TrEMBL record:
Residue ranges constituting the RNA polymerase sigma factor 70 region 4 type domain according to the UniProt record: 136-184
Keyword Methyltransferase: no
Protein name per Swiss-Prot or TrEMBL: RNA polymerase factor sigma-70
Keyword vocabulary terms for this entry: DNA-binding, Sigma factor, Transcription, Transcription regulation
Amino acid sequence: MFDSVSDEQLVQKARQGEQEAFAALFTRYAPLVESKAADLAPGLEPDDLKQEGRMGLLSAVLTFDPARGVPFRAYASVCVSHRVSSARRTAFKHSMLHSSLSLNGEESSALEEVPDAGADPEQQVIQWEESSRIYTSLTERLSPLEKKSLLLYLSGSTYEEIAEKLGCTFKAIDNALQRVRRKLRNIHT
């Protein structure tokens, strides 16, 4: 029905309340959303990123201004990319906070963590569960040197400072942190 209608015309019709026009845009831009959401982030499922991409598409439909001379496809691509990137950054921040290691090797209590006041409670639980899974999986795989090196690195210490504090060589710390990175990547694959 809308195959021969331009994106800009579909946007106009969608803004006027034609649900079929928005559905056509949604279908037309599904491959773009899927491609932007292809790379996962800690704490996010593939469907989470696709949903964020769809929200970016909705935002593009609502805020598109044809008078600026930018094609809708380019504008939508930027909106979707920004929304997905923002979700990845937020998930990464939550992942880093939830997966921090204590000096004595104990997992921090979930009650001690401060939830994001603006986040959906269901999303908070999902993010916490995923972060907890990653934390547990990672700490089970790390050696004592890797745990201590990671903690000091995450607290802002340089490789030289970590080596000095732990009584190791720079190369030993570099190797330990490289192993941590490999182990973390393996958890996500």
